[in-house]
Amino acid sequence: MTNVQKIIGLVLGLAALIGLCFQLDRTYAKAEELVKVAKRLDQKIMADKAFNIRERIYQLERMYPKNPPVQVQNEIRYLKQELRELDEKMRRTQ
């Protein structure tokens, strides 16, 4: 083999290697993107859970507008506490 053929082979090999690196970089998600997606998903899950808790509190208060039974009072108190904790957690993760 002549020197020209060796140089051409080396250049083509390097080009193929660089192309492979770019293709792998483009194919697989980067760690920062995965963290962002996971954070947005966590926010969405917490927002949905907060909505469901608010809906449950509203339903209970609507069913028992005056003098609810003790069990219902306890459940409403528990749900409101859980909602406060969830709201605080959502504020911390933003």
Describe it.
With 94 residues, the protein is an all-alpha fold. It has one domain. Helices cover 87% and strands 0% of the residues. It has 3 helices and no strands. It has helices at 3-27, 31-63, 70-93. Helix 2 packs antiparallel against helix 3 (70-93). The protein is rod-shaped. The mean pLDDT is 88.
Structure at a glance:
The chain has three helices and no strands.
Q: What is the alpha-carbon Rg in Å?
A: 29 Å
In round numbers, the mean pLDDT is 88
Enumerate how many helices there are, as a single number.
3
Q: Please indicate the percent range of residues in DSSP E strands (runs of 2 or more).
A: under 5%
User: Helix/strand/pairing class, anyone?
Assistant: mainly alpha
Helix content: over 70%
- Overall geometry comes to rod-shaped
Order of helices and strands: HHH
Residue windows where pLDDT falls under 50 for at least 5 positions: none
The description of the largest β-sheet is: none
Number of domains: 1
Q: How many E-type strands?
A: 0
Ends apart, CA distance between termini: 63 Å
